[in-house]
Amino acid sequence: MNQQPTTFRRPRGHLRAAALLAGFALTALVAACGGDGDDGTPGLTNQLYTETNETANMIVHFVRKSDGTLVRLESTATGGAGVNAVSLSGATGPDSLVSQHAVTMKPDGTELYAVNAGDNSISVLAVNPSTGVLTLKRRTVNAGGLRPNSLAYNNGFLYATFQQGTIQLAAYKILDDGSLTQVGAYNLATLGHLVATSVAPTQLVASPDGAFIVVSAGTAANAVMSFGVNADGTLAAPTTNTAPLATPFAGAFQPTAATPTYLSTSISGNLLTSYSFSTIGALSQLGQAAAVGVSSPCWLTFTPDGSTAFVGNGSGSISSYSVGSGGVVTLLNSVAASEPSPVVGGSSVAADSWVSPDGKFMYTAYLGDDKIVAYSIAADGSLGKLGETVIGTATQLSLQGLAGN
Q1: CA–CA separation, 305 vs 11, rounded Å?
Q2: CA-CA-CA-CA torsion sign (271, 94, 216, 153)
Q3: Chain segment 284-324, per-residue pLDDT in tens
Q4: In what order do the strands lie in the sheet with 308-313?
Q5: CA 136 to CA 121: how far, in whole Å?
Q6: Which parts of 166-245 are beta strand (E)?
Q7: For 234-292, how does the pLDDT look when each residue is reduced to its tens digit (9 = 90+)?
Q8: Can you list the alpha helix ranges (DSSP code H) found in 144-275?
Q9: Which residues are paired to 235 by β-bridges?
Q10: Is the dihedral of CA 130, 133, 137, 143 positive or negative?
């Protein structure tokens, strides 16, 4: 969600600097764009992590209390460098990586993976099984791809997208010591027969059965690419879906769906669209709904039962949708939650969200306001704010990604 640089200042107990766009115009966006735990007792089932994306990149660790609120704990260096809120264009603003999933976790909760876009590396951190405290295992510098921005774990392999370079997608085998051995490197423009200047991947995700890696190739590319996964972790030639897609940013598979159902956000039209997912990764539209009174719907997450989807909007709000069998999408609330901008004419930017495995709580990173907000989730999908935690990055704009267990 890159923006043109405009600098504002306001106090929050101290003087804070923010560089925010006065609104999120579509043209600017297309150019860029656990279970319960005991109170205060860390453990593998109640942890949450985000990264500062500062020059000296850090992972901030929280424990989730049984009431859904957060307790901030220690920060751990990734050993790598972030971009400190500086985008590809050189502007300073929120979501400098223009992505979802800058941090992700191994499903068993034993490792966390984080991008270091400032030095083109990826860090693997071990998770202490009794405290959730992180320890850096290894940082691996990528060859070919520049500015890693999104990660996906799949059956012992890690996949990453990159904002720049001749490689926009790479596959790595994760070794026991945390080092990453590259097993594949892919040029999305060449493989997808796309205009090279339009390719700027925003995220990737593994299919529920692990048979595919699905990449949002960029809002300007209007393409979602489905790569079959080989036994050695390498990727087969992709199926490139370009129609009826329009400015796709984030995608996710509906949990518990009887047949694979893929949903994607779309900046143009403020849309959330569902698709069937064929045996070769081809998408066919099933349903669609649009929010009103918001702009820049980008980030996407689900409740564990797959019945409710939440979309984070660049305009600083969260929209909620019900997703039924057969991919029927129904708008529940265009503004299920929102946070005010820290400055007049700007936006708090509701980005990556993460929902607890029991479906009771959701946590959202507000990139334009340097904070994580905790929400309760009611049976009807409505959200109730429980509290917020300010991260305290130097620019108050560099925060990126969210993952938990």
Answers
A1: 41
A2: negative
A3: 999 999 999 999 999 999 999 999 999 999 999 999 999 99
A4: 297-302, 308-313, 317-323, 329-338
A5: 13
A6: 169-174, 180-186, 203-206, 212-216, 224-228, 239-241
A7: 999 999 999 888 899 999 999 999 999 999 999 988 999 999 999 999 999 999 999 99
A8: 188-192
A9: 229
A10: positive
Between CA 219 and CA 7 the distance in angstroms is 26
Measure the CA–CA gap between 225 and 191, rounded to whole angstroms.
Answer: 9
Range with lowest mean pLDDT among 28-42, 166-180, 341-355: 28-42
**How many residues are present in the chain?**
405
Element (H, E) at 100: none
Question: CB 37: neighbour CB atoms within 10 A?
Answer: 19
Please report, as a single letter, which amino acid is at residue 153: Y
Q: What is the pTM of this model?
A: 0.90
- Residue linked to tokens 């009887």: 258
Q: What are φ and ψ of residue 143, in 5° steps?
A: -110, 120
CA-based torsion, 175, 180, 182, 187: positive or negative: positive
Q: Look at residues 34, 72, 44 and name the one whose alpha carbon lies nearest to residue 131.
A: 44
Query: Any alpha helices (H) in 186-327, and if so which ranges?
Result: 188-192
- Whole-angstrom Cα distance, residue 369 to residue 382? 22
Q: How far apart are CA 170 and CA 209, in angstroms?
A: 20
Dihedral in degrees, nearest 10, Cα atoms 113, 114, 115, 121: -60
Q: Are the beta carbons of 159 and 188 closer than 8 angstroms?
A: no
H or E stretch including 363?
strand 361-366
Strand spans (E) along 78-198: 103-105, 111-116, 121-127, 134-141, 145-154, 157-165, 169-174, 180-186
Amino acid at 99: S
The three-class DSSP label of residue 183 is strand
CA distance 10 to 190: 46
User: Which amino acid would we find at residue 96?
Assistant: S
**Containing H/E element for 31?**
helix 26-31
